[in-house]
Amino acid sequence: MRSEGRRRALPAAPLVLVLLAATGCESTPDSRPEPTAAWSTPVARVCAEPGAGPSGAPAGAVTVDPSVTGDVAAKTRNSPPHTTFWLRPGTHRLAADRYAQVVPKTGNVYLGAPGAVLDGRKTNQYAFGGTARDVTLRHLTVQGFVAPHDEGVVNHDSADGWVIEHSTIQNNSGAGLMAGARQRVRANCLRANGQYGMNAYKAGGPLRDLVVEGNEITGNNTDDWERKRPGCGCTGGVKFWSVDGADIRGNWVHDNRGAGLWADTNNNDFRIEENVLEANDGAALIYETSYNAVVRENTIRRNNWVEGRKSADRGDSFPFATVYVSESGGEPRIPARTDRIEIHRNVLEDNWSGITLWENADRFCNSPANTSSGDCTLLVKDTGRCTRPEIATAPLYADCRWRTQRVDIHDNRFVLDKSVVDCAVKCDRMAVLANYGTYPDWSPYQGERVAEAITLEQHNRWHDNVYIGPWKFVAHDPSRVLDSAQWQGAPYRQDAGSTFRARDGG
């Protein structure tokens, strides 16, 4: 579970509807109306307005008493599968053993009464574990557990078919929860956990069919793991690893230390829509070494201020983006609901830079520069073939690397006011680029081959967008900083049908 991090080779609780103002009436050159933010974006204010659980035990439910230490674990052991447990109001505790936990049976349901809390007392590592399928957790606060790095508190063992709804999972170490196949995570408050709000990872993957909907995901990575392990790629609001089929919609992902949402290593078929992603220290969204996604109708504002400014302060010329597509693209040979990465009808406002499409020329299967724990692309079964001399010829020349290709960026609204972001330079970039390939010495991707391909040959396209503010554009490599006319002109020919204005109404 490792990520490149950046790039190696270059130095349902109630939903409050926030109606975004419509844009001005200026039209694109082909007389089509410009993209607007006229749709409404739901803000899932779950943490302040949690849904209340049942005040009495449902018929047939087993009642769990907070005055009896370990009562929920003991009654789970002594009850058959498909039992419903109702946790009375109050603070419930497990035995004072680091491995004490609740191990559900298939089909169990855990319901919290108003005020029901399961507290790990900074002693227990896990709250709910085991491999039982189709477990449900509702209206329960889970806090104070101390899961180790890269492990989680709820559904610790990534069992399949779990439903976690209307719960508050907060102030734990590690990840608040893990994910299994067919998991549904709805209307929860995932707050102030030490590493992630959720870590969607299943050993042996892929993890299929995940829904994350209407959650508030805030203040996670309190332990600041990127500082403890620089370049670990192991932080943020939610991290997705090898997930095949995910719907991420209607969430409020904000004020996380690090990235808001990060899909890393052989994810596929994501729909990321109608979320509000704001005020995260790093990128709002990273889609890395992955495939086929739709990113639409999201409101993305005031992200990347902390990490973007750090990058600028250390003199990094890389366009440090708020939406970062890294070695990811559309691939028709991998089944999904789309065969491209389509980023459209989003509003990006006052972030540190915009969208960067990046491909590391030195990162491919079997390269020492591939830091994704030895993983290979989904197109190569025998990864040992990705070496010389075979890698230099078709089809392995293409299939042994994750390619940023078939990315379609259109009908978005990009707004930048540098006085709001408080920056003078380097926060105003839109980019498509790669590094100069150098490593290893047997690489067939040395020189400018990858930079030429990502910029001109891999069907990456911006069009029909609206830009408000002093935007610049980077193509091919960090040294090529362009104005809008150069960006639209030969050889790049990007942003056909787009409009550029210094300010709204200009």
UniProtKB/TrEMBL annotation:
<dbReference type="InterPro" id="IPR006633">
    <property type="entry name" value="Carb-bd_sugar_hydrolysis-dom"/>
</dbReference>
<protein>
    <recommendedName>
        <fullName>Carbohydrate-binding/sugar hydrolysis domain-containing protein</fullName>
    </recommendedName>
</protein>
<dbReference type="InterPro" id="IPR039448">
    <property type="entry name" value="Beta_helix"/>
</dbReference>
<feature type="domain" description="Carbohydrate-binding/sugar hydrolysis">
    <location>
        <begin position="158"/>
        <end position="312"/>
    </location>
</feature>
<dbReference type="InterPro" id="IPR006626">
    <property type="entry name" value="PbH1"/>
</dbReference>
<dbReference type="InterPro" id="IPR011050">
    <property type="entry name" value="Pectin_lyase_fold/virulence"/>
</dbReference>
<dbReference type="Pfam" id="PF13229">
    <property type="entry name" value="Beta_helix"/>
</dbReference>
<dbReference type="InterPro" id="IPR012334">
    <property type="entry name" value="Pectin_lyas_fold"/>
</dbReference>
<keyword id="KW-0677">Repeat</keyword>
